[in-house]
Recover the amino acids of this structure.
């Protein structure tokens, strides 16, 4: 017998010994006293054969005897108990809860604020481990991994008061702590410099049922190594009707908006404070976002969007 045959016999014998020992530990109480003695004896013989490193033919013969004894009592050893089913179910639920709490969670997109990147009723997975390990149901991080970056699509707990308090929102991080930000002519400016922007399509459907017959412009913005597509309503009000109003500039004098002239010492920009980010929807003219309710504390961020898993046709499409 060669070394390979020896190793194979030993590997198979060890696997058999582990499996039978586990089964007997869980279900051995169902065996008759005589059958229990017989099975235990076979287990002891196989363990001794392994310890003594007997030749492969003897090891295989000992393994065969143990298999035969187990098969003889398979009617009681193979059937799982109700407790085992409960334990298996409990373990599966526990693992699922740990994954949901710390690693990945599924979310459903409820509005069109992230069109064209995410559509209404898209189902996505969010990586909750991206920014760190957090104690569930708190804002307390146990381990910090990385900070939110410009361009990330983040899920976060709404930072304000009112009916949305505690709800999960999903938006694009457009600026981080210390950034000076403004929109001018539908173009994003960070720290006085325009974000690289390229028009992709003009005068196209907005793909947003709440905008009716309005027409949109789709553009690609690039921040560092992150590129993504946003849209805004056509600047010319004659397209689409009176309700299709493009808001190309922010902050503005509108007192209903965050960062307006009368409340913002940094006007005509805003300055993102420490430990906060500024988040916009990609559907710029139909999104309740930081232009209306302000900055998002980093501690409110739950994770970064990974990919779409529903509906069909968009399966496993990366979110970017």
């Amino acid at each position: 017998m060669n070394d390979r045959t020896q190793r194979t016999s030993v590997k198979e014998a060890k696997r058999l010994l582990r499996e039978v020992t586990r089964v007997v530990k869980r279900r051995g109480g169902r065996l008759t006293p005589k059958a229990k003695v017989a099975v235990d004896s076979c287990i002891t013989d196989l363990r001794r054969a392994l310890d003594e490193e007997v030749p492969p033919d003897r090891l295989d013969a000992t393994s065969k005897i143990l298999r035969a004894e187990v098969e003889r009592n398979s009617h009681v050893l193979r059937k799982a108990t109700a407790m085992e089913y409960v334990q298996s179910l409990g373990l599966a639920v526990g693992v699922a809860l740990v994954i949901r709490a710390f690693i990945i969670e599924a979310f459903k997109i409820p509005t069109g604020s992230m069109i064209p990147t995410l559509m209404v009723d898209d189902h996505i997975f969010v990586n909750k481990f991206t920014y760190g390990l957090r104690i569930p149901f708190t804002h307390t991080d146990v381990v910090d991994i990385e900070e939110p970056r410009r361009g990330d699509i983040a899920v976060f707990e709404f930072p304000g008061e009112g009916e949305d308090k505690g709800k999960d929102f999903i938006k694009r991080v457009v600026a981080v702590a210390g950034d000076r930000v403004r929109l001018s002519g539908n173009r994003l400016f960070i720290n006085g410099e325009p974000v690289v922007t390229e028009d992709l399509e003009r005068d196209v459907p907005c793909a947003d049922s709440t905008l009716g017959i309005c027409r949109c412009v789709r553009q690609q913005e690039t921040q560092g190594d992150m590129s993504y597509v946003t849209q805004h309503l056509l600047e010319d009000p004659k397209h689409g009707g009176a309700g299709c109003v493009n808001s190309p500039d922010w902050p503005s004098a509108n007192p209903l908006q965050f960062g307006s002239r009368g409340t913002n010492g940094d006007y005509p920009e805003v300055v993102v404070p420490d430990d906060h980010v500024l988040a916009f929807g990609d559907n710029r003219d139909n999104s309740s976002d930081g232009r209306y309710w302000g900055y998002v504390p980093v501690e409110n961020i739950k994770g970064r969007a990974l990919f779409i898993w529903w509906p069909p046709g968009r399966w496993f499409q990366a979110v970017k």
The mean pLDDT is 86. The helical segments are 3-27, 33-51, 56-72, 74-77, 82-102, 290-293.
